[in-house]
Every structure is written in C-alpha cells, then in structure tokens.
Amino acid sequence: MTIAMELSGRAKAMLRAVAAGRAQLSGGREPDLYVDGLPCCDQMVTHDLVHAGLLRARRAVGLDERSDAELTDEGRAAIA
Fold first, then answer.
1. Cβ–Cβ < 8 Å for 70, 54
2. Is the per-residue pLDDT at 2 higher than 80?
3. Is 21 left (phi over 0), alpha (psi -120 to 50) or beta?
4. Which of 4, 24, 43, 53 is the most exposed place for a label (fewest CB within 10 A)?
5. What is the chain's Cα-based Rg?
6. Which residue, among 58, 24, 29, has the nearest Cα to 39 in the 3D structure?
7. 3-state class of 55 per DSSP?
C-alpha cells in the first residue's frame, strides 16, 4: 500500500507512542486511540492512520473493549 499523504508531527508522535507499546485502540469501525490510558485528542488523525493501514489493534475487539495497538510494516516505515 502506498500512502499518498504527508504525516503531521502529531501523527508521527501518535505512531511513536504505538511503537513504544504505550497505546491501545478501541473496537469499532472508527476506533479511538488511548495513550498511557488517556484518550488521544485527535480522533480524526487516529481514524486516518487506521484507514491508511499504519496501525491496527493486535486482536479483534468489541465496541466497548480495547486492545493493544501495533504498527503495521507501513507504519514502521512511516516513522523510520
């Protein structure tokens, strides 16, 4: 997958938090990102990163659940 967008500093910081093992995603089609247990302030960037295939939940979760987040290969390349 080729990403046709330039990542903002905030988006890169969010990806670095995921890479550091500090993030979780909620379930659902438009997941929310939690960093250090707190909800991330930019839900739109979270949705963009998930839909672009840069991050994902480690396991399938329901709407009221969370899973540790992980970077995809594309996500790792985006912050390399």
1. no
2. no
3. left
4. 4
5. 11
6. 24
7. strand
Contact 46, 39 (CB under 8 A): no
Q: How far apart are alpha carbons 45 and 36 in whole angstroms? A: 17
Residue for token digits 């912050």? 79
- Which tokens in the block code for residue 49? 């990163």
* One-letter identity of residue 32: D
Q: Which residue has the tokens 């290969």?
A: 73
pLDDT(11) > 70: yes
Which long-range CB contacts under 8 A does 3-9 form with residues at least 24 apart? 3/52, 3/53, 3/54, 3/74, 3/78, 5/48, 5/52, 7/78, 8/45
Q: Where are the domains positioned within the chain?
A: 9-78
Bridge partner list, 23:
35
